[in-house]
Write a structure and sequence with these properties.
Elements: E1 9-14, E2 20-31, E3 34-41, E4 54-61, E5 64-69, H1 73-90
Antiparallel strand pairs: 1-2, 2-3, 3-4, 4-5
Protein name: UPF0473 protein U473_03165
Family: Belongs to the UPF0473 family.
Pfam family, one: DUF1292
Length: 92
């Protein structure tokens, strides 16, 4: 996605030790009344060419967001297809 630095959005996600890690939000989208978010870590070493993209289903409750890992293979395939479409659309 070609965005200006000032337009980037971030989210903090706790790791298994409770440490908050900063991620850049790449895309947010809805499919069949479910909300999804795709993020990349902001602490990518300079020698890595590409960052790993993480996908979550999420629910909002006011200003709080609860993330859920995607366990179902069919749901994952759907999210991956949307990601590839968005990535192609915004990076052509």
């Amino acid at each position: 996605m070609n965005k200006e630095v000032d337009d980037r959005e971030f989210i903090f996600i706790p790791d298994e030790d409770g440490n908050e890690e900063k991620f850049e939000i790449l895309y947010q989208f809805d499919v069949e009344d479910k909300h999804y978010i795709l993020v990349v870590p902001t602490d990518i070493p300079d020698d890595e060419e590409e960052a790993e993209v993480y996908a979550f289903r999420y629910e909002e409750n006011g200003e709080d967001m609860t993330l859920f890992t995607i366990q179902d293979e069919e749901e994952w395939d759907l999210v991956e297809e949307v990601f590839n479409t968005l990535d192609h659309e915004f990076n052509v």
